[in-house]
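Today's session is about reading a structure prediction critically. Students often jump straight to the picture, but the first step is always the sequence itself: look for stretches that repeat, for charged clusters, for runs of hydrophobic residues. Only then move on to the predicted structure, which in these notes is written as discrete structure tokens rather than atom positions. Here is the chain we will use throughout the hour.
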Amino acid sequence: MQICVVGLGKIGLPLAVQFAAKGHQVVGADIDDRVVRLVGDGAEPFPGEHGLDAGLKSAVSQGRLTATTDTAAAVAQADAVVLVVPLYVDADGTPDFAWMDAATREVAKGLRPGTLVSYETTLPVGTTRSRWAPMLEEGSGLRAGRDFSLVFGPERVLTGRVFADLRRYPKLVGGIDVASARAGVDFYEGVLDFDVRDDLPRPNGVWDLGSAEAAELAKLAETTYRDVNIGLANQFARFADSAGLDVLKVIEACNSQPYSHIHQPGIAVGGHCIPVYPRMYLWNDPEATVVRSAREANAAMPAYAVSQLARVYGDLAGAEVLVLGAAYRGGVKETAFSGVFGVVGALRSAGAVPFVSDPLYDDAELAELGLTPFAAQAVTAIVVQADHAEYAELGAGDFPEVRVVVDGRRVTDPARWEGVRRVVLGAPS
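Below is the predicted structure for this chain, in token form.
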């Protein structure tokens, strides 16, 4: 097949490489000249994705993957078009469709009869049918479902392990009609491989959910579930703090039977997905009080962690505090909705002077994020915000002036912090 992937970001580029590895001819389209140039040279534009560097070099050297800024021209040569363009929501949860609208209009310019168009970016329910179909029809003069196929097939992968997740999880597809769904299933069966899994109700592979709306809801539901579950775990952790209990032992006990699947509490919920998609769901369903309460509970955790520091440390006015971790999770160079911003903000509100260190970011990058880089200041308190593996090796000897450590991720080794008051969220301290 001739395939066009629109959006060469942390999901789109691995998808393009995956499709090329299956023997298809792929053109990646992106508005960023730098990304297009690097991809064309076989150089990954962002680090940290397992297997991407080798896969990209192989696809480019074999002539199976090229890149362009001319989306319409790439679409005009494609049998299938896959869009993975960012969609953001504002603080009130209102989607900002600007980038996706622009990409869709470019796709429409090059769309020809017989092409499959698949949106993989997470969307509010109803968007594929009510927004993209009319926009594609208007720009192309073609009719969705008659002249071209249109499906929603949400990405379900995690940055850093995209290729493994593509194999492990069923590919969900929903079309605007039966023919579109059939075309979508055929396409994804031709570009993906799947692990054998005995734990699923039906064989792993491409699953047709019956409609674009069902597929849209499935992606929102699975990510919203995680946010709600973590919100519950964080509520348990806060109660455990007040009761002098270790919530992790309680959660392990609960999860020893098959009807309990309580997630892990922590200082923040970050990333492009879990903090965002519940708000997108609330845009569809504003009366979902459980979802709203969980989102508020998770958003409050960075400030709660700082309050726990103040409870043990005392007045934070003027205190120099090191925040370990700018990334939203360990081993991933990404700060989207990272808890570092909430922690730093709460520290500043308490009068403290926060510094930030992260093994994945240099000082210039931290400063660009509005954070003050750590330069060996004699800090007297530490807040662990990300679960980088390096933090398990740190101890009191590395920070001789530190009096209190708040570990928001349970990553520090208590044996290394003898003589320092160590506070773990959801555990006696």
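Discussion point for the tutorial: DSSP finds 15 helices and 15 strands in the chain.
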